Amino acid sequence: MLETKQKGLVTELQCITYFYQLGYLVSIPYGENSRYDFIVDIGSKLLKVQCKSSTLKEEGVIEFSCRSTRVNATKNISRRYTKDEIDCFCTFYEGKCYLVPVEECSTSKKLRFIPPKNGQIVGINFAKDYEAEVQIQKLCKEA
């Protein structure tokens, strides 16, 4: 069983490998003082990416945290990411890479593979809409 830090590193490597296999350049900051895990050069843009591990929350729904947490002498300190620090979150789940703009996140983000049982679709984030290739195409059109 992997510890939290190990799970995070595996997710980060999966995301980096995904972009690299698509032919994008990936740059990794030196040291541990960056709010982003890597930068991906998609040609017209440089994206600051923060990787987060996802967990299955219920059938057909994954979730990841959109905060950083560190421990000081007295307590855990959690902090949200801002648009000035990163452009998007990246997660990898069951062989697929997902990219979510930071402005679409609060303290956590849920992505659905199946609709809710009540049939609601308004305000629901479907995983297929956040597949990395879909998001990259959107970003390239904006540039």
Structural features, described:
The longest helix is centred in the first third of the chain and has 18 residues, at 4-21. This protein is 20% helix and 34% strand. The strands form 3 sheets. A 5-stranded mixed sheet has the order 1-2-3-8-9. A 3-stranded antiparallel sheet has the order 4-5-10, with no helix packed on it. It has helices at residues 4-21, 132-142, and strands spanning 25-27, 38-41, 46-51, 55-58, 61-65, 67-71, 76-80, 88-93, 96-101, 108-112. The protein is built from 2 helices and 10 strands.
What's the number of domains?
Answer: 1
The average pLDDT is: 92
Annotation, overall tally of beta strands: 10
Spatial shape: globular
Which fold name is given in CATH as the topology? Trna Endonuclease, Chain: A, domain 1
- Computed structural class: alpha+beta
What is the succession of H and E elements? Answer: HEEEEEEEEEEH
Reading off the top of the CATH hierarchy, the class is best stated as Alpha Beta
Name the poorly predicted regions.
none
The gyration radius over C-alpha positions equals 15 Å
Percent range of helical residues: 10-25%
Taking the alpha carbons of the first and last residues, their distance comes to 42 Å
What is the name of the CATH architecture? 3-Layer(aba) Sandwich
- How much of the residues is beta strand, in percent? 25-35%
Largest sheet: 5 strands, mixed
Number of helices: 2
- Strands of the widest sheet, in order across it, are 1-2-3-8-9
